[in-house]
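Lab meeting minutes (informal)
Scribe: AK
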Amino acid sequence: MSLLSPSSPPIGGRYQIVRYVGAGGMQHVYEAQDELFRRSVALKVPKDSSGVRRFQSSAVVSARVNHANVAKTLDYVEDGTGNYLIEEFVDGADLGKVVPDEVPILPPSTVAKIFQQLAKGLAASHHAGVIHRDLKPSNIMVLGGHHFSGIKITDFGIAKMAEAEIGHGIGPRGNTTSKTVIGAIPYMAPESITDFKNASFASDVWAIAAIMYELLSGKQPFGQGLLSVPNILNAVPPPPPQQIAGAQFKSLGEEIMAIILSCFAKNGADRPTADQLCTTLDGLCFSVDAYELGTINHKQSMTVGFITADHGPSVMYHTASFYGGASVSVGDRVWFARHPGKPSPRAFPLVKVPLKP
């Protein structure tokens, strides 16, 4: 099937293609204009025509989930040109692009905020009887990119398609060169590795914990790709990230790490449910910050300096407030949250970010 373009006729007489967004493992994604309700939507098309039946059944299942932290399935269209899933359009980028491309690692307060929202979205899907099956950073949308204005789980609508490809890929004669398979494995629970078709609610809980560990540490908890399989099957607990050792991050970081490890119980029945995760995460104490970018413009000493914010007044920083530590120079780019202070606002937490070419 050829790619659609803005010159293509409206899909189903209603959805006019605006632009091609990109391709996931299982589908092509477009931004389209819903001409009836005058809103932007995400229009998804299966890459493989043999997966159309699974695509349709997945759309029916995903439409049962309705929550602020889940991208809503809005419609399913079949016409002479193909089969199309219509989903809420999220103005942002997927988590796998924001971290590490824009911000290489996230401090505990940001991870707690994301963890809490993911748990709530997951709980809503589980109450509706829906298992995602393929949770990974590329299936989580971040509103506002590096601002982290909100989080939405996406692609419930292709869960059954992912089940078919991944289930085949990790079998004894599986196609382990598949990008979908290789990309999914580091977030899969032991029971998903041994029998992917029997993925459960507990498998989803394991997956979001694996994602949170990666955000907190900058590393996947069990290793990359196929190398992670032995550690996953044996549920070998990953070490605490060294970044949380800093005094300003230690307390919350250790609390989050304890929650993550509880989600890595080898037996799914021993893991917290999504509802229990929500309760535990609601009990954490963390600031809900607005994040921004800036440039180091002055070093007053080895530990204190000032940042020219991209938007707003300059901000004072202390090197102890950098998550994971940082040796910064004038001209370096940083990501931070702004807090009141006199005579200048204070930046906390901070992360040194890559300079854009």
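Next up, CB showed the second protein from the same session:
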Amino acid sequence: FIYLWEHRDIIETLQNLNAYLFTLAKNRCIDYFRKEMVREVRKGSLSEIENRELQLKLYSLEAFDNDRLSDADIEEILNNAINRLPERCREIFIMSRLQNLRYKEIAEKLNVSPNTVENQIVIALRKLKEDLKDYFPLFVFII
């Protein structure tokens, strides 16, 4: 956002601000992972597994084409992933993330503890992260 603010004169020429922001964030992530790999290799502290993980993240970001999926496709993929969550987990996730209820409010409505709500959200995010990793590589980094 700082970059965009510093170059705000280009905003008027953009046809799709969301696509531009996504591409900007993606490219910043790619730059970060490249620098991280170089830095860690120089320090010699990067294990083989960590090196491969960084390379895979970098590869998935570079290969990701945000133009290949339409908004309808993305919505369908997200809805399918949410619908695959266990029933109670899905219910809590929807109340939290889509209805913007606080954990305490959800706990009161469902007659469960706030810790249960928090645990279910952690489970939901973990499952969604796994289900969506092939479609939205940046999603894996956000969660």
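CB comment: The CA atoms of residues 108 and 114 lie 8 Å apart.
No objections, moving on.
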